[in-house]
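Help! Submission page says 'invalid entity' but I think these are all valid:
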Amino acid sequence: MNSFGQLFKLTTFGESHGAGIGGIIDGCPAGLAIDFDFIQSELNRRKPGQSKITTQRNESDTVQFYSGIFEGFTTGTPIGFFIKNKDQHSNDYNNLKDVYRPSHADYTYAEKYGVRDHRGGGRSSARETIARVVGGAVAKLLLNEMNISVQAYVHSVGTIELEKPYTDLDLSTAENSIVRCPHPATAEKMIARIEEAGRNHDTVGGTIACVVQGVPVGWGSPVFNKLHADLGFAMLGINAVKGFEYGSGFEGTKLSGSEHNDIFVTENGKVKTLTNHSGGIQGGISNGQDIYMKVAFKPIATLLKEQNTIDKELKATTINPKGRHDPCVLPRAVPIVESMAALVLADHYLQSKLSRL
Amino acid sequence: MNSFGQLFKLTTFGESHGAGIGGIIDGCPAGLAIDFDFIQSELNRRKPGQSKITTQRNESDTVQFYSGIFEGFTTGTPIGFFIKNKDQHSNDYNNLKDVYRPSHADYTYAEKYGVRDHRGGGRSSARETIARVVGGAVAKLLLNEMNISVQAYVHSVGTIELEKPYTDLDLSTAENSIVRCPHPATAEKMIARIEEAGRNHDTVGGTIACVVQGVPVGWGSPVFNKLHADLGFAMLGINAVKGFEYGSGFEGTKLSGSEHNDIFVTENGKVKTLTNHSGGIQGGISNGQDIYMKVAFKPIATLLKEQNTIDKELKATTINPKGRHDPCVLPRAVPIVESMAALVLADHYLQSKLSRL
Amino acid sequence: MNSFGQLFKLTTFGESHGAGIGGIIDGCPAGLAIDFDFIQSELNRRKPGQSKITTQRNESDTVQFYSGIFEGFTTGTPIGFFIKNKDQHSNDYNNLKDVYRPSHADYTYAEKYGVRDHRGGGRSSARETIARVVGGAVAKLLLNEMNISVQAYVHSVGTIELEKPYTDLDLSTAENSIVRCPHPATAEKMIARIEEAGRNHDTVGGTIACVVQGVPVGWGSPVFNKLHADLGFAMLGINAVKGFEYGSGFEGTKLSGSEHNDIFVTENGKVKTLTNHSGGIQGGISNGQDIYMKVAFKPIATLLKEQNTIDKELKATTINPKGRHDPCVLPRAVPIVESMAALVLADHYLQSKLSRL
Amino acid sequence: MNSFGQLFKLTTFGESHGAGIGGIIDGCPAGLAIDFDFIQSELNRRKPGQSKITTQRNESDTVQFYSGIFEGFTTGTPIGFFIKNKDQHSNDYNNLKDVYRPSHADYTYAEKYGVRDHRGGGRSSARETIARVVGGAVAKLLLNEMNISVQAYVHSVGTIELEKPYTDLDLSTAENSIVRCPHPATAEKMIARIEEAGRNHDTVGGTIACVVQGVPVGWGSPVFNKLHADLGFAMLGINAVKGFEYGSGFEGTKLSGSEHNDIFVTENGKVKTLTNHSGGIQGGISNGQDIYMKVAFKPIATLLKEQNTIDKELKATTINPKGRHDPCVLPRAVPIVESMAALVLADHYLQSKLSRL
């Protein structure tokens, strides 16, 4: 239950306030050059304390690789890795030991397992996603070999929404902004909105868009493991995600078929479509156009203000969490979204080797 | 790649214009009473030709069970089943042999496999979902033993949207309407919209909502296989689906955390939440409240009118499909959505037996 | 639990006295030519009633393919198939309804599932292996494309043992003998031994050897899924199998390392080993030499004579089975052994595509 | 490919001369008390340098747990662990860099992956089994809760064989002997035989028997995943294993059915069999009697003397390995055999929860 992927498989372990977070990447082909600096730079994009709009926790988040790499190249054997937890203020959570935080995993977790590591959410903490960023970074290196890029950015924060389609933006500029939105004016408004939430001891949600370019025609599967179903599964497995759509998504349901269909044309001997409502995927299989998807994140549940709730004895009580928390998860979630997309695509790359004799 | 589920597992086979569609249900516990009439009634809800707003193809869609059931009860061994294809007008597809239909799986499929069964979409046809309805019906029988109900309905057709929340509706009335919307006035508008699309040789999309009631606290998993991630994966694997959300979904991203959090209270010794933005799932695990989700369906791609496209040689051509097609997939997709939800929940029921010593 | 293989996957269903036996082959690449006559000929090698030393039950064992094949070639989609049961004398089993046959699955089955299909062993009947022969025949067609052959033969019946190593025999002659032993003088003795067992209403066990030729270097996996571990798992899953060895096997444990090691030499630019104690597999991975293994079958448990046993109430009783049974399972098990070997190798063929960038 | 088990799943990583060996145990139920001293004592049974008949390498083999355990009990989340490599004399292997050792994984490995970590066998080293002992120790703790014991012992070394059946021995005394044979006189001969091999710079093989007591009726599966098939797969995945048998094994093939069948009787209301040729498993499912199996180990391939071989260019050369190696793998393999058995049984314990409604 803690593994992701069929052929390019990531298994993770670790809790927010335990020794650390780690994992095993199994199925990465031999012969891939590993760029350790790139992997660390991906972790840095996810790291707490990176800007004024993220939590001020201080984690170095340095990954150690234990196996599977020899003289800078993958050997085809499992890649074990580990990231130590450092800046644990477990005492911040003592007052949560017997109380269920609203809209958190505390209550459901305690009922499922009968035991609960109350410190920082235990296994349900988003700190687990650090292992996904390591796995995703290796997947990106594999995809790079085929000139496939994966680029996510913040599309909305609360009601502030980027109005331009991604095709009108330079996505590479997203990293220039601390909120990871590639449109400076919108980015500014988003930052102000997040700062406002922080001042109010409140939180704010939003959406992240992700674009994958360079995927050849023919990746995916026609029935259960449609390429977008695997992508949706990946995204819905990220903490705080409430929805997923690709291509025309929910808005596309309002169109008629004659408006929605993407007409094929040939350009310089290459097939393309005049529109891309399909989001690069038709019948569950990539069609060579850009893959485009959007992911909804709820406002995170930990508010630094008093709320009503119940305790372990199911008695009414109040809660007033301490600790250092993000008022908005979106800027740090951008590399996580990219990582999950990269893991899915690396898996389908391997699957694509098997479809024909 | 043609199996669904971890412990309650459905594997399907079959193409729209082959001998038929079938599958194997593996992992169903022994001792479950099988109500064959119920299973057939579920297939009838999905059947073509059931009303004036569905395709007029005529299939009896009668399921034969081959194994796994003895004297009316499951034996714990795999349940094999088969549904013959009958009303195949394969010749309707002869003109499609060398042409790629816009927004269909034809092109991607041909590139993936190098061969293509052009008759009716082959494996990518939604006729495959008949096997999911059989699997879902057995899953429903299992869930019934625990008083869990799964009820879907059409929430929107094009821009016509049901305005009331499900809590204000009697969902059991959805079946009284051929469009499967539990609000008669809205249902009428939806039917008119579908008939209009049919007259225009066009198609129309929409959304289906699904409500699961009676799931106990503690089903699901905290990381990749969050209960909603498995549900989303299930839904995104249905033909024509473009998006999935649960609980507050995309709209919820606009709220602040203090508006969005669901406050726990105790009522008659039972835990409940004052609101249900969580959609019955917190931290990937059911919290005992209603599970609520919404699924987006695009307008289906087969239009009975001329469109531009390309052929196998990548040359420009036109297409003008014949055949008998649904102008709107939603009424027949309702039992498919329910089936996929039931399959996921039956799987998590089994998983829930394993979490504690 | 009813699936075999990782990438080339066979899932089976069916009981001996139900409607029939069937399965789904998932993961077979597109573009493989299907020789239906060959598949049927494999089934005929396993069929009851084929000679005087097998059960005289009369089954046509004709396979129907339902999907996954179009115009004679695989399409890359799942291959569904079914074999009807015909010659069912279920009444022969009425007296077994409440009694547990010695060394059969009756007792363990009833305890596991709480219900039992007592007719002919239900799911635990060797009739299930018919589906493996279909799957194995398709796997053989795939291996044929790479000039890989899989050939099994009866190596011993009771204490009568073939004394020559396989390298001194013409394995293709095994099929000339009804006992499937490639050494005519030994075959005669084996037949006499089986006929003696039949006259005594008794049964007799033995061993089957299997040789796979043409596997390239590099198939397999270094840790859990060693090529011989997957082969052993496959063989131990056949009814009545009690042991598996490959290469030097149990006898090899008596040698010292300096006697046992296979020395590498180069011959015409090709690597070979002077001996083959390794049985073609080193460190779990094929080394290009012949793969050689041996499988032990117990004498089957159904004796047509009176034996003491207990009934469902755990009371002492006697049993005196009727029905038509093989006095020796080995001749009909030869194609089953080959099929399981072929399924494993087809799987590792696909896996071998994934090990390098 | 580096995971073992369906529900109680162990995934391992690490090479003999890398940073260390580790793994993840996924699927262990919450609430199991973890006895760290017991786990370490299991590792000590496998450790190099434990007696005069094992390699004199010096590894502390201390396991660190990273996750999944809170206040001494499992939490139901994945258990990550790591064992550092310490005593690495990688230079001992420099002369092996371009040479393929006879009957080793060097050649097959290089062909499979295109790259090879030549230091100590890399991933194909038996040092990987340290992770299995950790996993097996946790599995034993789980089985202990049900009063199930797993006990292995050395049954033969070369041609020196323990003549008494296990039922006439006190298996608990096996640990009193450095060769782990529970019969002192035989143990002495075995030790002398191993010392002789060591003096000759040679190696010697043998067999290990394993007895599992206390398994209730009904664990296992009737088709592919027969309990003995899973056990055989587990054992054949251990380095140097060449064969597996259970119950009457290869010898039993020589009996007639009337000699071989195990007659059921009832004793004090409990079912037992008069003989146990079935080895505690009938139709793939445990029958409540002792599970008995035997595993064949070849003489290990690394000889500290000159042998002919080839190099990477396929040219003839000689090899004369240095390093510190076991002349006989069996004494240290006893806890590995037990661990693999325990992992299989823990898995089937979980599976047994799913068979009935």
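Support: the input was valid. A stray whitespace character was the problem, and the output above is from the cleaned input. The mean pLDDT of chain B is 94.
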